[in-house]
Amino acid sequence: MTPPRARTGSQTPERTQEVPHLASVVLPSRHTRSPEIGPGEGRPRPRRRTRRPRLPRGRTTARHRVRAQIHPLRWMAGAFSALCWALIGLMWWHPVFRVQRIQVVGLVRVSQQRVQAWKPFHELVRRPVVAVRPDHLVRSLQETFPVFREVQVQVRLPNRLVLQVVEREPVLVWREGNETFWVDAEGVKFYAEGQPDPSWPRVTVQGDRYGFTLRPQDVALIRELVQRAGVQDLVFHPQYGFGWKVAEGWQVYIGTTLEDWEARWALYEEVVAALRERGQVPGVIQLLSSRAVVVLPAEEQAP
């Protein structure tokens, strides 16, 4: 093969470097994948945006109708919330809505002056009515006055409190040292108010230990003793329980429970009958149970 001839004149001399063929050149492209990237690891394809068809004028969708209904409701809710906060602020700061009077209704034995002299009542005066806590007031009032079995607090706008109370019904008198209490059927003790009923049993605690808690069964035992023994004045010993003094002069202790009450009472009558037949006068008769009894002679001092 003969070499090509050199061109003359204005023609440019032929380049000696060989130009590669275009088919063998690979141009970088963003759509091509690098050989180092595995399948599925290329760039994510751009998401296509779908255009919603425009509705002609005068036509609305269901979503547009719901939004049109909710929009005025939001304004109404906001206006109502603002009105509520304004009323609360008015009732908190305005002097018209401050407590001016506290009225107690339902008192029978407790005097109105004693209740009105209670210190928390003075603290409530001139306070906002919205700041009154009825549950806290009821709990404090019942702790101070156990005679109140039920207490209800009512807030009467603009500035009045009404307390509806229900007093306990006393059934006996309980004496501890120099203090006198009344006791209801549930065993709750409270300070005496006024004069007791003459038909109530009277129990006096012996010894120096006071502050005993009575139970409903204790009250039932006292009532049973009054009916059986035919006396109104009873005693309570911390060790021997309830008792009374008979007309012949001896002291009887029956215990602190109603368990085997009929059997113990039958044992007591049997022991008394046997002592009378012998002509003996006991000093103390103590019933430990329905089968055990202790009899002390009259020379020994009663406990």
**Number of E-state strands:** 12
- Please report which band the strand proportion falls in: under 5%, 5-15%, 15-25%, 25-35%, 35-45% or over 45%: 15-25%
Class from helix and strand fractions: alpha/beta
* Highest CATH level, the class of the domain at 170-297: Alpha Beta
Terminal residue distance: 153 Å
Task: Indicate the CATH architecture of the domain at 170-297.
Answer: 3-Layer(aba) Sandwich
Predict the CATH topology of the domain at 170-297.
Rossmann fold
Radius of gyration: 50 Å
Number of helices: 6
Oligomer: single chain
Mean pLDDT: 80
Largest sheet entry: 9 strands, mixed
What portion of residues is helical?
A: 25-40%
Q: Could you give the order of the helices and strands?
A: HEHHHEEEEEEHEEEHEE
List low-pLDDT spans: 6-13, 21-25
If strands are numbered along the chain, what order do they take across the biggest sheet? 6-5-4-7-8-9-10-11-12
Q: Tell me, what's the shape?
A: elongated
